[in-house]
């Protein structure tokens, strides 16, 4: 994927891309956080830019591509993402147990879902509330996974950042 071409295509639609991030700044962030970002994503950050803000262009909504530099809860990034297969939790593990208080249920569900926060960053929220996350550590490092309110799953077919971005942009640009 030619990332300079990607930037030009995005900008041709009128989407304002955040500035590119110098490689030295990315490497310093990796060192400070104790992580290693997938090279495809590093190339995007250095050649294309650090995502974009939410924008409406030609009557089409472009949801924000989140900024790496604005990532808030960085302590979870260095932990490995523990999943390799899809997991749907709705109406299974998250149903209230008989006699369970709301407080106990909330605590149990938070603990159950905690591993979904490990070793990944959210890149983009889709039009139906789904979120696309880049997996940083674990067996699926480098893949994009879809997170919803009912479960998580790798994109189908499984794909890395470049393939996902190219596919997402092709669909998005077809709408413009």
Describe the structure.
The protein has helices at 3-12, 23-33, 39-47, 102-113, 161-175; strands spanning 55-57, 60-62, 87-88, 120-125, 131-135, 144-147, 151-154. It has five helices and seven strands. The protein has 176 residues and is of the alpha+beta class. The mean pLDDT is 86. The strands form two sheets. Strands 3-7-6-5-4 form a five-stranded antiparallel β-sheet, with no helix packed on it.
Number of helices: 5
- CA radius of gyration: 18 Å
The order of strands across the largest sheet is 3-7-6-5-4
- What proportion of the residues form beta strands (DSSP E)? 15-25%
Question: Secondary structure elements and their pairing?
Answer:
Elements: H1 3-12, H2 23-33, H3 39-47, E1 55-57, E2 60-62, E3 87-88, H4 102-113, E4 120-125, E5 131-135, E6 144-147, E7 151-154, H5 161-175
List keywords for this structure.
alpha+beta; 5-stranded antiparallel sheet; two-stranded antiparallel ribbon; 5 helices; 7 strands
Outline:
With 176 residues, the protein is an alpha+beta fold.
